[in-house]
Predict the structure of GDP-mannose 4,6-dehydratase.
Amino acid sequence: MSSFSAHAFALKDLPSPEEYNKRKVALISGITGQDGSYLTELLLSKGYQVHGIIRRSSSFNTGRLHHLYEDQHERPGKFKLHYGDLSDSTNLVYIIAQVQPSEIYNLGAQSHVKVSFEMAEYTGDVDGLGTLRLLDAVRTCGLENHVRFYQASTSELYGKVVETPQSETTPFYPRSPYGCAKLYAYWIVVNYREAYGFYACNGILFNHESPRRGRTFVTRKISRAAADIALGKQACLYLGNLDAKRDWGHARDYVEGMWLMLQQSQPEDFVLATGETHPVREFVQRSFEAVGIEIEWSGSGVDEQGVDKKTGNVVVKVDPQYFRPAEVDLLLGNPAKAERLLGWKRKTDFPALVKEMVEADLQASKSMVENQN
Ligand code: NDP
Ligand code: GDR
């Protein structure tokens, strides 16, 4: 046992790490988010008992988990939510001591890059120090050799383009307070792995989307607007930088990769990506095509407009308020290591992702119209 161990509240009479790991008890921070909901579905389907940390909110914040929560009445003891926050160390120790998880997925974060410029200190506290707090809570409970830990690292670590495609060996150059906070989290995970023998992995995930994506991220903003404009509920979509390129996959495929990372004999860091990159403009083009609107582009930079070829209406306009103080121009990942060692491969391609998101928003928007009538 390390002389630096912080076993102030160490749990007693633990089984060996091998026996402990067979228990299949997962704890997820950020369970109410996009990835949290898909990961919960996956883990429940694999027979895990799933615990999630949720924040107290004055409004309803468990919409993405509603179907699972309903279901838990049929499967008592399989799914439980705990109030907590990554800024509250005592609470994290308490939850871990109570749950005694065999796997922890740290998905909780202020995850919006643009917002991180406005809330830089908060983002640093939650996304950076929050990761340290969770790791230290595991140590405080004396579970560092028992728990397997997944950290939601990000392609935002690469930031300014140094090389493409970006892989596990590409140097980092973050371009936002969010990226900088996640850089701290990345390295503290590596450090605790090396210092205390933690089974801890960084999943360096490129952008992944779905119909459950938050509405202020660009893909969902576009898919919703395409649906609403097609149904005559919205006139125009305002966007920022249309030239930024992203490597977009489906969240459902990526949570499978998270789980695989914690099932290996040795902890390692992995990139999950599709190996393709597309500009924001293409996401717009394809989304509007999916609802029967063909866009013609005019102007450039902030003067850019997207005109509906049939009606001549301007359906897309650039608004400088959505530009960022520093931008990540190009992300393109190389998932070769994950494919080779984890057997992971994305199943959903780019056209299918756009189609699924637009169809889901069209459906949701139509049913709102029907409910109003
Ligand atoms: P979301 O924004 O959808 O979800 C973030 C989750 O974190 C929510 O459950 C949110 O709770 C929770 N959260 C926010 N602040 C705190 C806090 N102070 N304490 C505890 N929980 C908090 O993100 P995604 O599901 O898309 O992403 C999951 C993780 O993966 C994040 O860490 C993100 O940074 C990272 N990531 C995401 C990628 C993507 O493309 N989606 C790519 C690479 C990394 P609430 O619902 O109450 O707001
Ligand atoms: P990103 O996702 O910053 O890559 O972070 P986002 O969808 O916010 O932006 C992608 C690109 O689109 C450009 N863009 C706009 N973005 C938003 N949100 N709104 C707009 O109106 C708009 N117009 C153009 C952006 O400038 C950017 O270039 C996501 C998050 O999920 C992070 O948590 C995660 O770590 C990374 O992906 C990988």
